[in-house]
Amino acid sequence: GNTNGGINGGINGGINGGIKRAVADNPGIGVSQLSKIVGVSVRTVQRAVADLKCQGVIEHRGSKKTGGYYFKAQV
């Protein structure tokens, strides 16, 4: 099927969901790997990640170069 039609409509929900799944499957994953797995640009991943961090869903651990994203432990 053609996925281009729906990209703008459900862009954040779909991408955020994809990123949440990718982080769940790959703890410590970085932005460039996320971009490959989810199939969107690094810039889009950065926006979605910022969104999820604001919502308290994921967090970045470690240095900028070697760190990665993890699900936040739900308290």
Characterization of this structure:
The protein is mainly alpha-helical and 75 residues long. The chain has four helices and two strands. The chain has helices spanning 4-7, 11-25, 31-38, 42-54, and strands spanning 58-61, 68-71. A two-stranded antiparallel sheet has the order 1-2. Strand 1 (58-61) and strand 2 form a beta hairpin. Helix 2 packs across helix 4 (42-54) and helix 3 (31-38) packs across helix 4 (42-54). Residues 1-9 have low confidence and may be disordered.
Keywords:
75 residues; two-stranded antiparallel ribbon; mainly alpha
Quick take:
53% of the residues lie in helices and 11% in strands.
Silhouette: globular
Biggest β-sheet description: 2 strands, antiparallel
Instruction: Tally the helices.
Output: 4
The average pLDDT score comes to 85
Classification by helices and strands: mainly alpha
